[in-house]
Amino acid sequence: xxxxxxxxxxxxxxxxxxxxxxxxxxxxxxxxxxxxxxxxxxxxxxxxxxxxxxxxxxxxxxxxxxxxxxxxxxxxxxxxxxxxxxxxxxxxxxxxxxxxxxxxxxxxxxxxxxxxxxxxxxxxxxxxxxxxxxxxxxxxxxxxxxxxxxxxxxxxxxxxxxxxxxxxxxxxxxxxxxxxxxxxxxxxxxxxxxxxxxxxxxxxxxxxxxxxxxxxxxxxxxxxxxxxxxxxxxxxxxxxxxxxxxxxxxxxxxxxxxxxxxxxxxxxxxxxxxxxxxxxxxxxxxxxxxxxxxxxxxxxxxxxxxxxxxxxxxxxxxxxxxxxxxxxxxxxxxxxxxxxxxxxxxxxxxxxxxxxxxxxxxxxxxxxxxxxxxxxxxxxxxxxxxxxxx
Length: 390
Prior knowledge:
The protein is of the alpha+beta class and 390 residues long. The chain is built from 13 helices and 4 strands. Strands 2-3-1-4 form a 4-stranded antiparallel sheet.
């Protein structure tokens, strides 16, 4: 019985396409405004450049994970120390001090993707073997209001990464040297002390053997060399050997201890030189946060140590050559192993895409607004009609 009134109500609530078309001017205006908005966004948006740092074995996943957490700290330290050249570098350092920036704008490309790694794992359980820790390159994304600024920012970001990688490699090396110096001082002094004590005992033993030989010099049995079958590892049987054989063995052991002491003294000499280098190197690492400049300063310290009188011995030169090789390898591996490739041009998103997106957005928003307005008017008309019938 109530079907006809309900049908009338539905017809009254339904929206006619012609009602929407009646607002075509409003909808069109919305689309035009959207296009203009898209054009405005295009002309006010930043230029974007994607630079590539080609990694030729300078770092892997473990090194990158360490750098990813430490490079923002390094940028913050440079800011706090006020060791930047201008406001542009200051602005860039503020950006680089954010861990989120490194997460979003500095992305490593691995030789094997996560999907491929899952397929390869059943064949090999060694992640290094299947290449999942190998990084092919790093992609740096930079943006600015002008093309030149975007390109310059990308270069600054890439150079900071390269310099920071050298800095932390040097910092690790110098700290290792410092720990080595401390440990070596204790170990070498203990070693030379033990050797000198044993040498005293051996010399006493040598004197006693000489006295015994003098005492039995007229005894043929004491002078004869008997070829006895004695286990050389059993020291308790040594006393049953002829005195001259025992004397030769003691003299050989004395020579061995003297050689050990001389070698230990050489190592102490090397350690003192390493200690002198570390003493000068630590302030460089603590105060100069530019890895490239720090490496060059450390190499100059080595050259200065070569010129001193203490650095003229063979052992000292050997130690300096080893340190020089370590620092040169770090500097060269990061300079040559991280090749910075900056595109010559920076671009914006296509203007057609922004115009189309803006037009569609304006059209959609206006259409929704018109739809809501018509629905509201229909609802009001229906309510007025009901009140009039009552």
